[in-house]
Specification:
mainly alpha, 9 helices, 87% helix, globular, disordered N terminus
Length: 242
Amino acid sequence: MKQQEKQSLSKEAALSEKMHIEEAKKPEEKLPEASQNQTMRVSPSSAGERSGEKQSLARIVWLLFSSMLFISAFTFGGGFVIVTFMRRRFVDELRWVDEKEMLDMIALAQSAPGPIAVNAAIMVGWKMAGAAGMAAAVLGTVIPPMAILSVISVFYQLFAENRIVAAVLRGMQSGVAAVILDVALSMGITVAKDQSALHMLIMGAAFIASFFFKINVIWIIACAVLAGVILALRNRKGAGNR
């Protein structure tokens, strides 16, 4: 019996030792390392996304500044002419703003106090890049006229009496009139596309009041705003009843 017990104990010891050896040969678990690698992979990706967003924002701000600087420097004839080139740049070329939204911005820029070009630049810049975009667009808009007018003010008498300069200005007036007519037609066509009888009536009434009766544009805009508010409230009430 003692001999059998010794054999049994020796077998159990051998089996236990074998199990320890097999466990020692098993590969270590890689979960912590994998988790660490995953964390390491996520962090650079997040940093890359943030860097890409900053680069994209910087590019938008630069495009706002450079576009408005170019438009303001080579545009003569007032705010409506600048707005025309803004529409071509931001709607047709860059496709940042759609036609209807640009039309709304122009209406708000005209209604708000201050130059229409600066007001429109504020709204486009704010929409695209917030305060930084607004500052860049306004800065690009005001730098060219400030620089040009500063030079002209110094040599004003020379420019005023120069026949060549006077002839150039008269020729520019014809071109400006054509550009403003293009603006009016483009905006009118956009309004006509809505096929709204009320919008067409407001547009026709505003033209008659301004062209034939010489009514101040402030009163025309105020009446148009009032008509728009009434129309919006009526549409909202109709939608609520449904």
